[in-house]
Structures are given as C-alpha cells and as structure tokens.
C-alpha cells in the first residue's frame, strides 16, 4: 500500500548534525581563552554546528544562533578586502604567504624586509588591516563591517565589551604594529590600524553566519542566500590558499592531512572550513586546545570530512547539476495504455509520484542536492523514484545518505524506488549490507522508469500493488472502439468478430506481417514492443481488456511495424479489414463511429507523446 501524506521530516544531513552534536556535547577537554578577559566569561557548554551549501541550504544543530566574537576567523576576509583594494601584487609586497608553524601571536617577520610571513598570524592581519582603503578610521571600519555583512548575509556589529577587553590587554599587538611601522609595512602611525584590528576581531557572529560566510568563499565570493557578491571571484583562490596552508597555525599541516579543507579558527571557539564549489562549515565551542583551536570544532570537522568524504584531494568532479530532470506521474505516464477514466485519475493524483533523473558523480555535496529537493517536496509526495541511468559513480557517503533517505521515507510509508540500478552497483551492495534481512522488502528496483511508473500507477489506481488481470471477458459493448454504438449496432459489429486465444509469451502480431485485422482485447494484457539497435526490446505500450490494438491496419494497410505479445492469457476479438470495409456499404454509421473512436484513441496517444516531449525537451 502507498501511505498518505505525512508532515515534513528533517533531512538525513540534519539528523547527522544532531547526532554529532549529541556525541560531543559532553566533551569537556580544553579551556576558554583567558588572555582576553572577556572571552574567559564564555559558557563552556555552548556548542553549535552549521553547514551551508552553495545552493543556499543551511543545516544547523545546537547553539548555532549563539553570538560570539569572530576573532582570528576575520583574518582571511580582511585579507580579501585588502586584495581588492590594492591588487595581489601590492599586497604581496607587504604580506607573505608562507606558513610558519608558529603560534598566532608570534612576531614572525622576514629578517631583511620586516614583511609578515602570512596574513593568518597577527602581524600579517594587522598589515592587512593597514591596507584597507578609507580616508578615516571610521570609513575603514564601516567598509569592513559592510564586507562582513555581505559574507554573512545579514548585518553584523562589533561586541563593545570584547573590543574594550582586547584593547586594554593588546600590548603585544601594539608592539607588532610599531615594528611593522618601523619597516614601513604600515604607511602611517600604527595606533588607529591596531585599533581597527581589535574591532575586526570583536565582530559578533554565530556558527550559522560562519557557515554562510564559508559557503560564500566556496561559491566564488557570491553569498548563496542573498546572491550578493561579497568579494570578486578572482581573489577567492588567494584567500583559500593561505587558509589551506596557514589557517590553523602550527596545526595546519595535520589539519590538511586529516580534514582536507581550507580552514580558519578563532580563540573565541569558532572554526570555519570550506569545500570549494560545494559547501562551508561553521562550528562554535569555546573550549580550546594547546594550539588555540576549538576542541569540539576540530572533532566535528574531522567527523564531517570523514563521514561525508569531503577531503579536498579526494573529491570527484561535480556535474553542473546532479538532478538532470524531474517530473511527476501527472506529466509522464508509463506505456501502459489506460482507459480515459484511469488516465484522468492519474492526471489528478499523479503529482504525488515524482521521478528524479540523476547524473554525474554522486558524493556528499551532490547527494545533498537530491536530499534537499526530495525533503522539500516530501509532504506532497507518496512515492519517490530515483533514476540512475546517467550516474557516473557513487561513493560511500552518497550511498549512506540515500540509505538514510530510504529509511526516512519508509518510516512515513512512502516507497523509494530505484531505476537503472545497474548504473550504480555499489549503491545496491551498500543497501544490501545495511538493510540485511529487510533488503528484499525495502529495496525496490526496476529496469527502467517505464516499469516503475506502471507500478506506481497500479498502486494509485487500485491502492494495492498487485493488480490482477484475470476475470471474465469484457462484453463487446464495452470495447473502446464501440463507444457510442446503439445495442443493435453493437450486435451487427459483434457478428463480424472472430475470437482467438493466446498463451503468455505468445506472439499475437509479428513485425513485418501483413496488416489484416483490428484486435479488440476481451481479456488479459498484451504489450507492443520494438527491437532497438542494440538488440534489446523496448516496450511501446501495454493494453488491457476493452482496448484495441493494430488499428493502423484500418487506416494505411502497411505491414506491421511492431511486435505484440501476450503478457497473460489473452482473448481477442478480431475484426478483419475486408469486413470493416463492407460496413461502409451496409452500415456506414457504424464505420464512421469506429473510425472516430480509433482516431480519438490515436489522438490520446499523440497528446501523451506531446506531454512527454514537453518534459524531456530541455
């Protein structure tokens, strides 16, 4: 049975973030930063996880809306603003891009030039702040806050309490500022620039905002929620490069090895990670390790990378769009020919069955697109069909997400069908290993969409999945070509019919045979097929009792162009061409009505073909 609609459910990705949050909620290793007194007041239990995709989907768990200060996570974004204001060549004259392996507050300057080693340490970040264009400190601060707001997709502000705390204790940073001025890295007195640096570190954000900011970098500088350009795309590669090599300070190498995404941490407990072209991650937890990185943040990012296979150097090529095409049963039917009332019922109710034709490589980011589309439409769906015909590969993380989606739909009584599963054998193996004894009952695979759609149609029409074809033959008065005939006219036409029987699998019409009869199906089911160039048979239509086939013989008398085979035990009434022709002389009204009904049948087939062309012509 196909269950009715249920309320919306969470995506498997959301479920996993909740699971991760619960797993590490009690982890109490590390301690909050104390060298900035205001940061020491943070609640050690605060813990938020957020993930944003370049398609604009955001997932979050825990304290994802809890404000905290951005701290050193501001550095790559301010560096990007400096690049835009000065060009890459000018910035390189004042700030290097080499990793140091030193702590974030190390005074790491080149011996001869005084140039900071990279923009991710405090010296480089202060130098970057000094490169922001503006005639006054107020103008520079306004431009910086506007830049952060474009990345976050909403207005952000400085936390005044944290700013004052930083300013009152930031003697080392002031010393760095004066050293930079002595080497002419800073072109003016350092006090206002260092003050601007304190304010950039004091910008208040949430883990959700950090995820969106990271996704903006992943999306070549375009905010995936607002579609606003936060930074010119040509500078994103420079930002991500220094994040990849220097963003986690003296943990950067191990981070890149374990997690494999450009990242940046802050001493307030925030961490961002970027998978270019796909997604951004934001995590917040104030307990820090000895490197100054969030303990929970590191664990979560490692888990996400491993679970979803997000490592930058192990990411397959992504297709332009993983969903090649989607349509409902109301738009495209199977090749099973239905009666007009059945066809109308499917037109009305068919929107509850949706087919998603997938393409390219399926891995976490592309599978997420599929999950989001299905979950967004789930309340109005009764069956989901995934067509894998154009899938090139599928990895374990994508298989896992589809497995979880299958269970989620099954829990609501909504089947998920697979077609062309031979294109993704690894998915079938994964599902078999996970489902175990439930595999045969939950894993429903069909050779193609046609067979899957017919199954769905039968379910919608009969509310059970095994419709029968047995029973008594229909009366001639119920043949579709006899519609509109008076009882006496039915009797005249019936007298011309010849009854024949066929066994399952028996050929009723052979390809190329002379066309001499119209077949009226009295009982059973028969299918029309053609042989493709590769040798496989392609079903064109399946007919049920009361329908007609072979009608082209009444019109053009050309040899048969397809094969018709009995699917079940079949009984047919045959009307020969010569008897049909004589009706024009003896009973012209009967012949005219027969021709009209045959033409209406052909018209319905043409309209069906036109609907399908409108769907598939993209």
Characteristics of this structure?
five-stranded mixed sheet; five-stranded antiparallel sheet; Jelly Rolls; about 625 residues; alpha+beta; 3 domains; Transcription Regulator spoIIAA; elongated
Descriptive overview:
The protein starts with 11 loop residues before the first helix and ends with a helix. The protein is an alpha+beta fold and 618 residues long. The strands form five sheets. A five-stranded antiparallel sheet has the order 2-1-7-6-5. It has a five-stranded mixed sheet with strand order 8-9-10-11-12, sandwiched between helices. Strands 13-20-15-18 form a four-stranded antiparallel sheet. It has three domains: 13-308, DD-peptidase/beta-lactamase superfamily (Beta-lactamase, 3-Layer(aba) Sandwich); 329-462, Transcription Regulator spoIIAA; 476-616, Jelly Rolls (Sandwich). The protein has 21 helices and 20 strands. The radius of gyration is 34 Å and the shape is elongated. Helices cover 41% and strands 17% of the residues. 46% of the residues are buried. Strand 16 (525-531) and strand 17 form a beta hairpin.
- Kindly report how far apart the N and C termini lie: 34 Å
Q: What is the CATH class of the largest domain?
A: Alpha Beta
Q: Average pLDDT, to the nearest integer?
A: 91
* Total number of domains: 3
List low-confidence stretches: 3-8, 464-470
- The CATH architecture of the largest domain is 3-Layer(aba) Sandwich
State the CATH topology of the largest domain: Beta-lactamase
Shape descriptor reads elongated
Q: How many DSSP-defined strands?
A: 20
Percent of sequence in beta strands: 15-25%
Question: CATH homologous superfamily name of the largest domain?
Answer: DD-peptidase/beta-lactamase superfamily
């Amino acid at each position: 049975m196909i269950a009715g609609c249920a309320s919306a459910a969470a995506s498997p990705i959301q479920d996993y973030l909740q699971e991760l949050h619960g797993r590490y909620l009690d982890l109490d290793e590390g301690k909050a930063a104390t060298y900035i007194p205001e940061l020491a007041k943070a609640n050690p239990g605060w813990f938020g996880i957020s993930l944003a995709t370049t398609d604009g989907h955001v997932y979050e768990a825990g304290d994802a809306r809890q404000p905290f200060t951005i701290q050193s996570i501001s550095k790559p974004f301010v560096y990007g603003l400096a690049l835009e204001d000065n060009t890459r060549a000018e910035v390189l004259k004042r700030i290097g891009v080499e990793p140091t392996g030193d702590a974030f507050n190390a005074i790491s300057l080149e011996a001869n030039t005084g140039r900071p080693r990279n923009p991710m340490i405090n010296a480089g970040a202060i130098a970057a702040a000094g490169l922001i264009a503006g005639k006054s400190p107020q103008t520079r601060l306004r431009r910086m806050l506007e830049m952060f707001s474009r990345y976050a997709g909403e207005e952000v502000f400085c936390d005044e309490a944290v700013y004052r705390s930083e300013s009152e204790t930031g003697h080392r940073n002031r010393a760095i500022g004066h050293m930079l001025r002595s080497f002419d890295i800073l072109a003016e007195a350092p006090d206002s620039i260092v003050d601007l640096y304190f304010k950039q570190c004091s910008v208040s954000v949430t883990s959700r905002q950090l995820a969106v900011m990271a996704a903006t970098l992943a999306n070549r500088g375009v905010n995936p929620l607002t579609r606003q350009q936060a930074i010119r795309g040509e500078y994103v590669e420079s930002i991500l490069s220094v994040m990849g090599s220097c963003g986690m300070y003296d943990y950067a190498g191990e981070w890149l090895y374990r997690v494999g995404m450009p990242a940046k941490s802050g001493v307030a407990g925030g961490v961002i990670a970027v998978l270019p072209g796909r997604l951004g991650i934001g995590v917040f937890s104030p307990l820090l390790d000895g490197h100054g990185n969030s303990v929970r943040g590191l664990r979560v990012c490692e888990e996400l990378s491993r679970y979803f296979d997000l490592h930058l150097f192990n990411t397959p090529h992504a297709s332009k769009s993983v969903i090649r095409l989607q349509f409902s049963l109301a738009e495209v039917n199977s090749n099973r020919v239905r009666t007009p009332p059945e066809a109308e019922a499917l037109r009305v109710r068919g929107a509850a069955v949706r087919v998603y034709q997938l393409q390219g490589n399926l891995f976490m980011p592309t599978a997420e697109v599929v999950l989001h589309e299905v979950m967004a439409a789930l309340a109005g769906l009764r069956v989901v069909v995934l067509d894998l015909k154009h899938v090139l590969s599928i990895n374990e993380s994508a298989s896992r997400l589809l497995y979880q989606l299958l269970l989620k739909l099954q829990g609501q009584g909504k089947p998920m069908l697979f077609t062309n599963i031979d294109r993704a054998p690894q998915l079938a193996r994964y599902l078999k290993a996970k489902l175990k004894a439930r595999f045969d009952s939950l894993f429903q695979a069909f050779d193609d969409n046609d067979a899957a759609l017919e199954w769905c149609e039968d379910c919608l029409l009969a509310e059970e999945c095994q419709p029968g074809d047995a029973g008594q033959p229909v009366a001639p008065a119920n043949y579709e070509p006899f519609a509109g005939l008076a009882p006496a006219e039915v009797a005249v036409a019936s007298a011309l019919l010849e009854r024949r029987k066929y066994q399952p699998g028996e050929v009723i019409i052979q390809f190329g045979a002379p066309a001499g009869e119209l077949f009226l199906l009295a009982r059973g089911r028969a299918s029309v097929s053609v042989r493709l160039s590769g040798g496989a048979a392609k079903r064109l239509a399946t007919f049920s009792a009361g329908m007609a086939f072979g009608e082209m013989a009444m019109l053009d008398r050309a040899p048969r162009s397809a094969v018709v085979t009995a699917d079940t035990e079949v009984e047919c009434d045959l009307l020969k061409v010569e008897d049909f022709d004589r009706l024009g002389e003896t009973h012209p009204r009967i012949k005219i009505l027969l021709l009209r009904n045959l033409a209406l049948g052909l018209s319905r087939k043409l309209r069906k073909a036109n609907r399908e062309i409108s769907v598939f012509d993209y």
